[in-house]
Amino acid sequence: MATPIIELENVDKSFGPIDVLHNINLRVHAGEVLCLLGDNGAGKSTLIKTLAGVHKPTSGTVKFDGKPVEFSSPKEAQEMGIATVHQFGGTFPLMSIGRSFFVGVEPTKGWGPFKRYDRKKANEIAVKAVQDFGITRIDDGDRLIGGLSGGERQSLAIARAVHFGARVLILDEPTAALGVKQASHVLRIVLEARKRGLAVIFITHQVMHAMTVGDHFGVLIKGALAADFRKGEKSREEITDLMAGGEALADLGEEVEEYMASHDGHAPPAKH
Amino acid sequence: MNNLDFGNILRRPEAGALLGLLAVLIFFVVFGGIDFLKPAGTASWLNVAANLGIVALPIGLLMIAGELDISIGAMIPAGSMTVAILSGHYELPIWIGMLGSIAVGICVGIINGLLVVRTAVPSLIVTLGMLFAVQGLTLGFSVLLTGTTSVALSAPDWAKFLFGQFIANSFQVIILWWLAITAIYVFFIHYSPFGNWIFAMGGDKVSARNAGIPTDRLTIILFVLSATSASFVGMCQAILFNSAQVSGGMIFIFNCIISVVVGGVLLTGGFGSIIGIFFGTITFAIVNQGIYFTDFDRNWSSLIIGIMLLLAVLMNNTFRKMALNYSPKKKKGAE
Ligand SMILES: Nc1ncnc2c1ncn2[C@@H]1O[C@H](COP(=O)(O)OP(=O)(O)OP(=O)(O)O)[C@@H](O)[C@H]1O
Ligand SMILES: [Mg+2]
């Protein structure tokens, strides 16, 4: 197989005394979607932040196009073509679509110290980029981000990443808090990005979403890569159990009932 | 698209400030008579607006970026005392004193900025500490060096001409500085990419940093701007009035914040405009000075300012909601 775009080799990450990631080995290829799964706090966001240049790995190497790289800032990662839509934020509610689309790389007209932000051009490009992904409801670049729906915002963020020539698209829970229709919109955009030859890393807590778009799955449990398999290698039930941190959720119902029967109807305490 | 459309104006951050300005103008013309718009009257509020406005603009930018600087209250006397001590008490050339004032502003701004960026302590607390520290230093040094808390300064003609003359006997020359500085800010904030970064930073700092915006450097620059603007105003006052005092300046803290908020800047950051702050400052100055032209007791002006502030915030909230919900006309009714 061709060289993976991104490869992690024995990557560890700790924040002071807290070990968050242990010995992660992963490969992501162009034109494929890697779904990162795992319970809350498993380390998914931390893993993608080390890819996005937000954190540096404590040890181990990250390879890009087969060559070891070290990002000193998110900007460097972006310049190499790694675009990230982070779990929280990523959009500026009180800015216009055009302005937030080009934040940090504003198009200008004029020369020297009199360079001006080119609003018309920014709006045109931004609107066209989102519409190309099928979100035709966005047709005015002066609208504020805060007036868009959650799905439209995610779509805009993805369109932005693709527009700026991303080769790797990292999406941290883009479908969380979205309704069924909006989520399917985002999933369609993920598939479109894959079709354009991008490598996509997609984090989700929803098995359905993962199974819809994933070619390749990585499951994190307490910071270690507990499973790494390809589409079709595991059933939905197995994936669900893995996502819950390796516990058999299938038996959950029975267990709870037993517990309640023997404890005056109280629900069992949460497990850790 | 037609930019003169009334709805478009209402959705802009300065909408509330413009309406507020019209309201207070009408109010004072009705109750104070037209005198208040004649040259002598205009000078009275323009002078207040110019001194306040030069400081309010960078404070507004800081608020748009999600920060606050209240140490300006001490920077104004610090700026005037520095030039007065250096060029008045020690009789050094005026340009040394003036450079001294500006340098004090730059230093304090850098310290404020670094502390905010490095410690993640809210800037309100950092600059509150700085307010008292600078106040103490100003008082301490002036007593130590000059033995008094008020120092005389007689500036040469060119310095008077540029920084401290009365044009037509009543307009302070700082008004021209204020207008020029406002124009420069308008360009940088609304027409250059730099402004976009400040709005992004105030909207969501982490995302802005992830988008490659040098948020730390920008934060420090903004604090340097506010501290230096304040010391500049102090310097001009010392040159104008031929003396400097260690006290005064505290009132600028509240007046700046009021001007900025009346001007449509969102307290939590990410929204506002230079023109709005400009209108907000004029509105404040008119209320502050206009009361003298009416038969009302001066004490009522505080009441008007308080009510105006609340109305402005409520109105700005409404306009911001309109801006958020705005979508192109053809979509209306298609929800
Ligand atoms: N900057 C940090 N300093 C210290 N600990 C951190 C830091 N960032 C994350 N952690 C810890 O690392 C662990 C993994 O966090 P992470 O955000 O990667 O989880 P996640 O898998 O994305 O969870 P979720 O599904 O809830 O988003 C958590 O226990 C968290 O407290
Ligand atoms: Mg996460």
UniProtKB/TrEMBL annotation, chain A:
Residues 6-247 form the ABC transporter domain. InterPro entries: AAA+_ATPase, ABC_carbohydrate_import_ATPase, ABC_transporter-like_ATP-bd, P-loop_NTPase. The keyword tRNA processing does not apply. It comes from the Bacteria. GO terms for molecular function: ATP binding; ATP hydrolysis activity. PROSITE patterns: ABC_TRANSPORTER_2. Keywords: ATP-binding, Nucleotide-binding. Transmembrane segments: none annotated. Gene3D superfamilies: P-loop containing nucleotide triphosphate hydrolases. The keyword ATP-binding applies. This is Sugar ABC transporter ATP-binding protein. It comes from Paracoccus aurantiacus.
UniProtKB/TrEMBL annotation, chain B:
Its main location: membrane. The chain crosses the membrane at residues 16-37, 43-63, 94-117, 124-146, 166-188, 218-240, 246-267, 274-294, 300-319. Pfam families: BPD_transp_2 (PF02653). It is a multi-pass membrane protein. Keywords: Cell inner membrane, Cell membrane, Membrane, Sugar transport, Transmembrane, Transmembrane helix, Transport. It is found in: Cell membrane. One of its GO terms (molecular function) is transmembrane transporter activity. GO terms for cellular component: plasma membrane. InterPro entries: ABC_transp_permease. PANTHER family: ABC TRANSPORTER PERMEASE PROTEIN YPHD-RELATED-RELATED, XYLOSE TRANSPORT SYSTEM PERMEASE PROTEIN XYLH. Part of the binding-protein-dependent transport system for D-xylose. Probably responsible for the translocation of the substrate across the membrane. This is Xylose transport system permease protein XylH. It comes from Paracoccus aurantiacus.
